[in-house]
Design goal:
Elements lengths: L2 H19 L17 E8 L3 E3 L3 E9 L5 E9 L5 E10 L2 E7 L15 E10 L4 E3 L3 E6 L10
Parallel strand pairs: 2-9
Antiparallel strand pairs: 1-3, 3-6, 4-5, 4-7, 5-6, 7-8, 7-9
Length: 153
């Protein structure tokens, strides 16, 4: 093989290799793009029947993302007086995320209709590719604290 033949074969081969190294199209072929949001399953609020003002509440959710992994999980809490709170849920292992908060709302700003006396919880999860998922709303009934009885009764 003479020098001209080596240059004729080597230059196109080098050009092809450099194109691949510089991010040419074939470098990304076969690598799936993550366009699927995380999966949120089994949102659990404890206590799950009745919450009174000042009570500690725990939110747990099972969240998975098979492609890029779970980046963050939050819970948006809406109180019966319209107030909102966002809680960062932390990983506990085995795809479980949890967080606690103390339930506080203005009892004087409660809706007139007792059928609207709920804490509403929505869990949101983001993966490492920017996909976002949101759970259905979970509701837990709330009650106001009864007034103290007068002394001497």
């Amino acid at each position: 093989m003479n020098a001209k033949s080596v240059v004729t074969v080597f230059i196109p081969l080098l050009s092809l290799l450099l194109t691949g190294c510089a991010g040419g199209g074939f470098v990304h072929e076969g690598v799936p793009k993550d366009n699927q949001p995380p999966q949120i399953r089994q949102v659990k609020v404890t206590p799950n029947m009745l919450v009174t003002r000042g009570k500690q509440v725990t939110i747990e959710a099972t969240v998975t993302d098979e492609q890029s992994g779970v980046k963050a999980v939050t819970a948006e809490v809406t109180y019966p007086d319209g107030g909102k709170e966002t809680l960062q849920l932390t990983p506990q292992g085995n795809d479980l995320f949890s967080g606690n908060f103390n339930a506080f709302w203005n009892e004087n700003a409660m809706p007139q209709n007792v059928n609207e006396w709920f804490i509403r919880v929505v869990v949101k999860a983001a993966d490492n590719s920017g996909n976002i998922a949101q759970s259905p709303e979970t509701k837990v009934r709330v009650a106001i604290t009864p007034p103290d009885l007068p002394s001497g009764l």
